[in-house]
Specification:
Elements lengths: L2 E7 L6 H9 L6 E6 L6 H7 L3 E4 L3 H11 L4 E5 L3 E2 L2 H11 L4 E10 L4 H19 L9 E5 H6 L11 H9 L4 E12 L3 H4 L2 H16 L16 H6 L1 H9 L2
Parallel strand pairs: 1-2, 1-4, 2-3, 6-8
Antiparallel strand pairs: 4-7, 5-8, 6-7
Amino acid sequence: MRISVVIPTWNEELWLPRLLKSLSIIKDIDEIIVADNASRDRTVSIAKAQGCRVVRGGTPAKARNAGAKASSGDILLFIDADAIVTEDSIHAVKAHFADSGIVAVHFRLSLISPTVVATLCYKMLDWYCAVISSLGLPQGIGSFIAVRRSAFLAARGFREDLTAAEDVDMFRRLHCFGKVKYERGTVVHVSARRFVVENPLVFSAKCLLWAALRIMGFGVSVLPYQWVHYPSTAAFREELGVQSLLDRH
């Protein structure tokens, strides 16, 4: 069971090294592909220096599709550049895919350096994913998604015409080809940086809107998602939390 990691990037020089360091400790990763959206910082040089294959990306959907096309793994692991991955999560991926009926796995997300409001939002996200999955309508976000290649190809990848929530749409379509598992026992750590550039409650409300539209099968977004530049202070604020997570390896 070969695992290919696909990381969509756009000016991620402050976040990508952390993710790559966490992945370098894990033996079960067969290749790492960085799909870059014409970054103007050191993202590409960092990726190449760490032995990653770099391909041309674009929007998150286009980048993930480009990375998948360039990959060779049986399992495609789509990871956002602001995540920190532990070996436990990779072991959980392999364990779940031992069941041939499972086509995708996503995980409970935990913030690296949480604020009270951001923590509450992610607890609500966890509750929502658990409840909606129990109803046979899996939904989640694209911070860390493991997908069986055969199912990804059958679903024809991420929809590049969607301006928001293409990851939520992918869960809905993958469910047509098998079981989508929401793993709550193992967490993946992510940055709270989105809450630095947007009001947490407003962003959460937009996510709920997009989720409702996707679960009903609508391709409209009403409010488009914007891939933005994150301030360096957001990365520096997380350094102690990141180092603590890496030390646990």
